[in-house]
């Protein structure tokens, strides 16, 4: 009896310990943030916040520092969330509205455009939202633009003046994707032309801080080009012309003085550095302005809102950071980094570097989604120099989160392979692993910062391995081009090599599952087929499963891949549907389903136009026919990503249950 009581007591103690150690709920990771963004007004005396604090949807809130900083809701909607708020001048803002409750299929492309004064007056809808009714006071303004218009730029505020107009572009809904720029008055809704003849086939534009369009990007007949228009000129001159995948350099930015900034690849890794363009030599300068060893340059100029001078760049290396040319801002950044150590501290400013500067700092880390702070160089009586504005996710405790590290390892053929590792700092010894494969695949998978998927999985006791396999961008042209026509082949070997490295290092145990969305879902299924001994299970969502369907399309299945992509890009980067038919078949999951023996979970969206539901249905049938019934779930109203919070939480919980069944 005593022994039974002792066993019962030990069991109770185990239950109590388990309860105390219960991980944070999925909702904490996947609900919308309480504070999404904060933007300084041109004077620096007002803040625009996109926040759900105290309201049921993301609203637009203004804090007037001259009125004590009390927050005031100036825009909110029953059927949507405020999105991408920008100051037009110190008294007027523009923004879009998206409805994630409808799922991602209904909000990704057309948020409309609205304007309102900083005190909540003079509301006006300027552009319709796709799928949504017009918001009016009983009359419909005939000047309201249709949904296919987007904001190109909000010009820098003239000294001592106000700003009425923003630069917009009407984009074609046809195959050519062309864009026509116009000026739009946010107070009257009137439009005017930009005052020059647009180059044929224009698909994008690059303005200076005044909104003057300096670069036009064109695409025609499988060729791309960039053209330049100098300040005060109406003539366009060519910068380059190339095929779609081999531009000699990338146009990054322009300044108000007529300078052009480009990034050019060099060295054995082909990593891109920021350079000024030399118009006399008609090529980039030899000496880089900014180089980021180990990474391609990726960033934006930071321009003084007062005079248009270039102060520095905001760029992405392992994390987002500021690199300042201006000595005063360089010194201020050092002060901020000392004040918030171990964080990435992004600074935005007005009257930058002057004694009366106003600066907004977003401070974040791998374990902390972020907090906003306001600095006032000359605070008014009763104000402090530093003020906390708000926290991105209030209920999340950074100490409960995992750490994120970037490692660089050799792939089996010697190519350097960046690998992100996320694991609890309290973990000792090897952990069950989830290999999380990013989508794209022509994208960068991760940055140093807080990520919901990796943190959620780490909170469940897994080490998360995220390889930047060849074909990923951001690590040089050599790394990118090494992925051409390597779906299911060398790209897949990179994923396996990352896991084997983690196991050899004692980071990951011999229990592992593979997971991912879109291309990551494709890689999940091919990993199970190609390396069955490595993985105990796989979770694939929104996954490309049929390379024939992906490469050629179908009359009966609608998707959003353009004819240009299928004619020029996919044949070179993935494979030609005719010439490479055997290779595509050998690396198409639906045709290799019989090789998959591990348990599979499939999740798809019924309104996905990038990877239509047919991909999932065909894979489900192929696995069934092979005697491997997958776990199956679909989400109504969703597109290529889960926008509805309930769906995000539901999927995370289903994945958690599935992984625990096979890894624990």
Can you walk me through this structure?
The structure is a single chain. This protein is α+β, with helices and mostly antiparallel strands and 664 residues long. It has three domains: 28-301, Prolyl oligopeptidase, N-terminal domain (Methylamine Dehydrogenase, Chain H, 7 Propeller), CATH 2.130.10; 302-390, no CATH class; 402-663, Alpha/Beta hydrolase fold, catalytic domain (Rossmann fold, 3-Layer(aba) Sandwich), CATH 3.40.50.1820. 20% of the residues lie in helices and 32% in strands. It contains twelve helices and 35 strands. The strands form eight sheets. It has an eight-stranded mixed sheet with strand order 28-29-31-30-32-33-34-35, with helices on both faces. Strands 1-2-3-4 form a four-stranded antiparallel sheet, with no helix packed on it. A four-stranded antiparallel sheet has the order 5-6-7-8, with no helix packed on it. Strand 18 (260-266) and strand 19 (271-278) form a beta hairpin. Mean pLDDT is 92; it is low at 1-20.
* Contiguous helical run count: 12
Name the CATH class of the largest domain.
Mainly Beta
| Biggest pleated-sheet summary | 8 strands, mixed
Strand order of the largest sheet: 28-29-31-30-32-33-34-35
- Class by alpha and beta content: alpha+beta
Give a summary of the structure in a few sentences.
The protein has 664 residues and is an alpha+beta fold. Helix content is 20%, strand content 32%. A hairpin with a 5-residue loop joins strand 17 (250-254) and strand 18.
